[in-house]
Design brief:
DRAM/TMEM150_Autophagy_Mod, mainly alpha, 9 helices, about 280 residues, membrane, elongated
């Protein structure tokens, strides 16, 4: 039970996303023998994810997108909470906190897009479906940019924690790869190259799962900081939560230097008044 922690949130999200995609792809290939859905274009032979999800598997599509989105958003919120509580390296600058807020805001926008594109399928609500698809891609891509920026700043100020740099590079690679794939997907859609666009959509979706799993790297250190004395400190505190910093301890020692060892009286008094002392 020791290793059961917040890192399982992105694991649940990523596994759900992968399982949904694999189920839909295998269903279309083997169960339907690559059927041509009514929502597909005349020159299209490869189904989009939304084509498969608009008919028999629509309940799976909606449920899979919803579970993925909820647990992924919980991963972002857990990251913010754990940094606030000192369970992870804390955000101590205003810029880092703003970046974290923007990350969460655009992740929620991406979530709305993901859930709504599953509900408003391409067969019955084509324009709305495309709008929410755009919202999903742009929302999560901007969220990734802001979280990557946040980790870049954290990594610079906390070079001793190499996991921050690792997370930054993983997310940067995702941003570059996913952006290039998304642009290629959009161009092929506008040119009505349906089959290349469909292939790219599946690839974009599978690559997205690796981005979800990358948050395991971020949340994993929290398993070691459950005890309060193992938590990260904020400015003015030592690495043990609630323990004064070395500067505060030095100031306290300097204040005690004015007391004669073994006595509770100021230095200007040679000794404490005795019990029989009556004054002058």
């Amino acid at each position: 039970m020791r290793y059961l922690s917040y890192w399982m949130l992105p694991v649940v999200s990523g596994i759900m996303w992968l399982a949904m995609l694999m189920a839909m792809l295998l269903y279309w290939i083997y169960q339907t023998d690559r059927t041509i859905y009514p929502s597909m274009a005349d020159n299209q032979t490869i189904a989009y994810i939304s084509d498969v999800g608009a008919f028999e598997l629509k309940p799976l599509f909606i449920a899979g997108c919803a579970v993925t989105a909820v647990f992924f958003d919980l991963s972002f919120l857990a990251d913010r909470w754990l940094r606030h509580r000192g369970r992870l390296v804390p955000n101590t600058t205003r810029t880092e906190k703003i970046l974290m807020v923007l990350t969460i805001v655009f992740a929620i926008i991406g979530t709305v897009g993901l859930v709504c594109l599953a509900i408003f399928d391409t067969q019955r609500h084509q324009q709305l479906h495309r709008l929410f698809l755009l919202l999903f891609i742009v929302g999560y891509l901007l969220s990734a940019i802001f979280v990557c920026w946040e980790y870049q700043r954290l990594g610079i100020r906390h070079r001793e924690h190499s996991i921050l740099a690792a997370s930054f590079w993983v997310k940067l690679v995702f941003i570059i790869v996913e952006f290039c794939l998304a642009v290629a997907f959009a161009v092929n859609m506008m040119l009505r190259n349906s089959d290349p666009a469909a292939i790219l959509e599946w690839v974009v979706a599978f690559v997205f799962s690796f981005y979800i799993f990358s948050f395991v790297i971020d949340l994993w250190p929290a398993i070691h900081t459950k005890p309060r004395d193992m938590r990260f400190s904020k400015p003015g505190m030592s690495h043990s939560a609630g323990t004064p910093s070395s500067q505060e301890m030095e100031e306290g020692a300097a204040g005690r230097a004015s007391i004669i060892p073994g006595q509770q009286y100021p230095r200007y008094m040679e000794q404490a008044p005795g019990r029989g002392y009556r004054g002058v």
